[in-house]
């Protein structure tokens, strides 16, 4: 936690929008300690699953920005409930998106229906994280998700906006996957 506080102090005055998960994602006591001491908004939630986990971090208020990941939190229904919980606690929701392009496009649909918040007003809301790392799956997409100016057009087709070609993604399909946090 000392490192998180030192980083926050060093970044002070530089216009940092938020500091994201500076400690282990499930360390609620640590986040509550940091919440009263950070200058930059504290963001987290990308590794939390289920509405209860988010409720524990929002009451009492621990995160300044909550970042559910559709592939972990429980999907659209849970994410919408998290957004309502965030709105009730005056905490903006910015969808966390990392990994597969399918998750990115699903998260784009979620971002399109999230309410604007005063903390993110004027920033081109809704904000959406985009993984720019090497990703073999992205090369198999039928559409380019992000334009040169960093904006994303929300597809107006049903579902996530494009038809998933199972054959294109076949090399990435696994029988079983689980995450231990």
Descriptive terms for the model:
181 residues; mainly alpha; TIM Barrel; three-stranded parallel β-sheet; 7 helices
Give an overview in words:
There is one protein chain. It contains 7 helices and 3 strands, in the order H-E-H-E-H-E-H-H-H-H. With 181 residues, it is mostly helical. It has a single domain (2-172), classed as Enolase-like C-terminal domain (TIM Barrel). Strands 1-2-3 form a 3-stranded parallel β-sheet, with helices on one face. Helix 3 (51-58) packs parallel to helix 5 (76-88). The radius of gyration is 17 Å and the shape is globular. The two termini are 19 Å apart. The model has no long low-confidence stretch (mean pLDDT 87).
CATH architecture: Alpha-Beta Barrel
Straight-line distance between termini: 19 Å
* Annotation, overall tally of beta strands: 3
What CATH calls the topology is TIM Barrel
SSE topology string: HEHEHEHHHH
With strands numbered from the N-terminus, the spatial order across the biggest sheet is 1-2-3
Q: Would you identify the regions where 5 or more consecutive residues have pLDDT less than 50?
A: none
Averaged pLDDT: 87
Discrete helix count: 7
Identify the CATH class. Alpha Beta
How many strands, what sense, and barrel or not for the largest sheet? 3 strands, parallel
* Fraction in beta strands: under 5%
Rg computed from alpha carbons, rounded to a whole number of angstroms? 17 Å
Helix content: 25-40%
Q: How many structural domains does the protein architecture include?
A: 1
General form: globular
Structural class: mainly alpha
CATH superfamily: Enolase-like C-terminal domain
């Amino acid at each position: 936690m000392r490192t998180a506080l030192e980083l926050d102090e060093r970044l002070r005055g530089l216009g940092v929008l938020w500091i994201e998960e500076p400690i282990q994602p499930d360390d609620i006591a640590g986040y509550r300690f940091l919440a009263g001491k950070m200058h930059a908004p504290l963001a987290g939630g990308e590794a939390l699953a289920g509405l209860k986990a988010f409720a524990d971090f929002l009451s009492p208020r621990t995160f300044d920005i909550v970042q559910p990941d559709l592939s972990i939190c429980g999907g659209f229904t849970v994410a919408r409930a998290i957004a309502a919980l965030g709105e009730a606690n005056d905490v903006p929701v910015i969808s966390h998106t990392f990994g597969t392009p399918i998750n990115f496009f699903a998260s784009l649909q979620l971002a399109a229906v999230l309410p604007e918040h005063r903390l993110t007003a004027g920033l081109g809301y809704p904000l959406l994280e985009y993984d720019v790392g090497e990703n073999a799956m992205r090369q198999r997409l039928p559409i380019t998700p992000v334009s040169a100016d960093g904006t994303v057009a929300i597809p107006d087709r049903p579902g996530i906006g494009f038809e998933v070609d199972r054959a294109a993604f076949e090399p990435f399909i696994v029988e079983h996957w689980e995450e231990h946090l």
